Structure formats: C-alpha cells, structure tokens
Amino acid sequence: MKLCVLLDPNKKQVNNVIEACKLVGNKREIEWWVGCSKSNANSVKEISRKMREKGLKPIHLFPGRLLHLRALKHADNLLVPRLVICKNKKLKLVNTLGYWITRWIKNKTVFGYLVTGSDSSVGKRIKAEKLSDQKIIELSKKFLDNHEVDGLYLEAGSGHKKHVTPKVVKAIKKILKNKTLLVGGGIKNPKMAKKLFKAGADKVVVGTVFELNDIKKIVKSIQSFL
Asked: Taking the model in full, what pTM does it have?
C-alpha cells in the first residue's frame, strides 16, 4: 500500500508542499507525483526539477499534455494513462497518440484511467458522464479484457464531492488480481484513505488536501495518512 502525493504546478502552495515533502523524507510508503492537465510544460518541468533538487524520490511524472514529457529528465518514472472512456474526440486522439509515443520509454507504468466524477475538473475536460457503481465496474472489466496494462486508476477528480466507494474498489480489485489498483479524487482525510486501502486499493492518490500555507501543518497532514 502506498500514498501518492500529487503536486499541481498551478497551485500557489506547491513550493510549501515540496518543502514539507522534504521534511517528511523518502519513506517507502510514499510516491511523489507531479502533473496537471492545465499546467504549461515549463511549470511542470520547473516543479519536477525542484523536487529532484530537494532529494525527493521516486518522482512520477503524470503528464496532462504531450509537452509535459519535457520534464522526463527530472523524473524516475512516467505514468501513462489510457482513457477508458472519453467523449472529447480531440483529447481522445491526443491520449492515443501519447500512448504510442511513449511505448519506447523504459521507465513507465501504463494504466487504464477511468474518470468517475463528471463534475470534477478532469471530468468536465473529457466530458465524462455520470456513472453508477455498477457501471464503473462494468466499464473497468470491459477495458481490462481488451487492453494490456499494468493497472487501473479510478479517478473521481478534483472538485467531485464523492470519492470512489470501497464497494467498487473491492469489486475491481478482484478483477485486476495481481495488477495495481490506484484510487484518487475527493479523498479528504486519513479515514477515507484507510477505508480504500482496506477495500483493496494498492495506491491512494491525494493532493488538494495538502495544499496549505503552513509547512508544519502539511507535514502533519501527510504523516496522518501513513
């Protein structure tokens, strides 16, 4: 089980989070992620560089755009999302193109990316539809039956009121078997995270909850999730 701390280069508090992460130290149960679909390539590259300078590792690059790949030299691993469902035709094309471009990169993790929150920022971008728990399970199974990936990422998305339920996590983990199940979005406290871990999530992705102005509070917040 791992906690994935996602840093958004667009947020004003991102430098505070980096400093806090340094104080927390390179614990085995934490992964440091960087990325945001709305960030420009330079900001992603700069934040990745700062993370590297602070000694954070492993750093996982989660690109929202192809140009974000410019930050690869500062990252230890590339996260390659394959959209399970996307009604934004342009974005779907870019996502497919990105998958083929990154096929020759050695240090990468490819996962199915299912956005469950239609009213979240990422949900609006891909024009996600409202999904019931049963529909999430059905879409996940169909995707996994037809694609070779390292795992599946269920993303409620920033701004969505409801995180993925433990019921869904438990059902999909059975389908995934030995592959990795990642869950993120709407996870606001350690209690929520622990329920998801208990249900079968291998990794829980959290970011917004750590965007505070006080570095000491950020450190305590991260530690409370471990």
From this structure: 0.93
